Amino acid sequence: MYCLPYAGASAEQLYSSWQQFITNKGFLDIVPLELPGRGKRFKEQYILDFRELVNDLLNNIKEGLPNNHYAFFGHSLGGLLSYEMSHLISDCEITKPIYLFISGCDSPNEIVKKEMDLSDAGLMNVLLNYGGTSPQLLWDKELLDLYMPRLRSDFLALKSYSFVSNRKPLDIPMSVFHGSNDKTLVGETTEWARFSKGKIQYKSFNGGHCFIRQEISAVVKTIEQTLRTSLG
After folding, report:
1. Domain with 191 in it
2. Number of separate domains in the chain
């Protein structure tokens, strides 16, 4: 399962611990999908255009995509990226994912309604409101100076996103996760029903926007059970 991070995060740092929560180690492999400018792609330039970023991510994995079963998991920005990657894959002659997990992410038609303040003060508000950020980062100027350009680049990419209203829905089953106390979402999670003809399930977890950091065991358990059921 390819896992995409939220804005500003490193996929490797966020998802590297998930494998240990898989009950059957041979059933599911967790594969963090890193964005440019962080982790093992630290030396690469940030990509500020959303479509270009989607193409970049797909180009990095398409040769290694399995011919049988794989899935996507994406949280917040990663949810939208995984959705758009699934569309791009469906339009190409590439084996499509068997399942899509969207987490902490508004539906595409709602995301474009969000106002974005990309000033330093605005980004600090994002860090405070979204949660999931180390207190050490918030009070360490040197760390912030390294982190802010990465966070800003991800939001610039998100700001460039254009919602396509007349596109056919995906034909992929989907689960939509959200935190029970997430105040950052502007729409209802059920809006995602418009974007796939496949079966859609909804699941709430304890916590706010970054619940996946505190509820790793519950999230991974739900994913594993869902995929086992989907595969029959």
Report:
1. 2-231
2. 1
